Amino acid sequence: MSSGALFDCFAKSGAVDVTAFMGQWPFRHQAQASAADLIAMADRYGLAGICVSHIASIFGHDTHAGNAALFAETAADGRLWPFAILNPAESDGWERELEYAEQSGTRGIRLLPGNHGYGLGDQRVAELVSALRKRQLPLAVCVRLQDERLQHPRYPAETVPLHALAELIARCEGHPLLISGLREYEWSAVLRLQTENWHLDRVICDLWHVNGPLAVISQLVERRWASTFAFSSCEPLQEAGATALQLAAAGISDPDRLALCRDNALRWLNG
After folding, report:
1. Count of Cβ atoms closer than 10 Å to residue 138 Cβ
2. 8 Å CB contact between 210 and 184
3. Does residue 252 contact residue 220 with C-beta atoms inside 8 Å?
4. N or C: which end of the chain has fewer CB within 10 A?
5. What is the pTM of this model?
6. Residue 148: pLDDT above 80?
7. 16 bridge partner residues
8. Of 148, 165, 166, the residue nearest 157 (C-alpha)
């Protein structure tokens, strides 16, 4: 089967990309994506939606300017689903930015603890999770945004500890949670920390950092994780075609492929 035919197979799934960004990555000249770029990606791969945040909210003096640009630019196409980035450690508080994001039509909230310099055990994170539960807004937490070996040596970002993820799952009490940037063996390690009060039916992990040969998707399914992982590109830091090809070429059933491409993401988004 040709690569084009394989991508056609993926495109028929109407996939949802749960982790993508727009804007310019400051440490890589070619790592940038505009709304037009993401729209073209949606056309190329037949995506039903892209959960997108703005890079300026990661590296700016605050999160607001990037979020404002996000809401303005995602208005160009209904397949661009804005995910505002909040920083619980911002000096002027995150509550006002959450209210602004909700009023602006955000589809969920994304956190980047390693870039913004706080821990998931921070009391402000617990308060934010409580606020999201009241508003029924799904939460996405980025463990990492790139392989640690590729980070700029002057501006390293901490990787979120696995025990902190385990504690967050318990704290969410079944609230929709996406864990972004995990390797598959790291998810195994998180599961070993499972407690009785976990509700995993609304917890998913994305696929952009699940590296390996084409067989890696089949291995996830064999481990009964077909309902746990979801397609993601991490554009513009990664190329969407790599994960799309893995999903298209995997020797798995059509229902499992649809779950990984689309259905798990919609379950997370719709709570």
Report:
1. 24
2. yes
3. no
4. N
5. 0.94
6. no
7. 49
8. 148
Share of the chain above pLDDT 90, in %: 79
CA dist., res. 188 & res. 30, Å (int): 34
Mean pLDDT of 33-45: 96
Q: Are 85 and 66 in contact (CB under 8 A)?
A: yes
Q: Are 66 and 56 in contact (CB under 8 A)?
A: yes
- Measured distance CA(7)–CA(242) in Å, rounded: 10
Angle at 265 between CA 261 and CA 268, to 5 degrees: 160
Instruction: Give residue-wise pLDDT tens across range 71-122.
Output: 999 999 999 999 999 999 987 789 999 999 999 999 999 999 999 999 999 9
d(CA 267, CA 271): 6
Measure Cα distances from 108 to 30, 78, 141 in Å.
Answer: 28, 15, 11
- Give dist(CA 140, CA 137) in Å, integer: 10
pLDDT of residue 29: 67
DSSP codes, 130-199: HHHHHHT--EEEES-SS-GGGS-TTS--PPPPHHHHHHHHHHHTT--EEEES--HHHHHHHHTT--TT--
Which positions ≥6 away from 251 have C-beta within 8 Å? 215, 218
Residue 236 preceded by cis peptide, ω within 30: yes
Question: 11: which residues sit within 8 A by CB, 6+ positions away?
Answer: 44, 45, 46
C-alpha to C-alpha distance for 193 and 165, rounded to whole angstroms: 9
Sign of CA dihedral 93, 112, 135, 200: negative
In sequence order, the 6+-apart residues with CB closer than 8 A to the CB of 120 are 113, 141, 160, 164, 165, 167, 168
Q: What is the dihedral of CA 26, 30, 33, 39, to 10 degrees?
A: -170
Question: Using CA atoms, how far apart are residues 12 and 74, in angstroms rounded to an integer?
Answer: 24
pLDDT digits (tens, 9 = 90+) for 186-242: 999 999 999 988 999 999 999 999 976 668 999 999 999 999 999 999 999 888 999
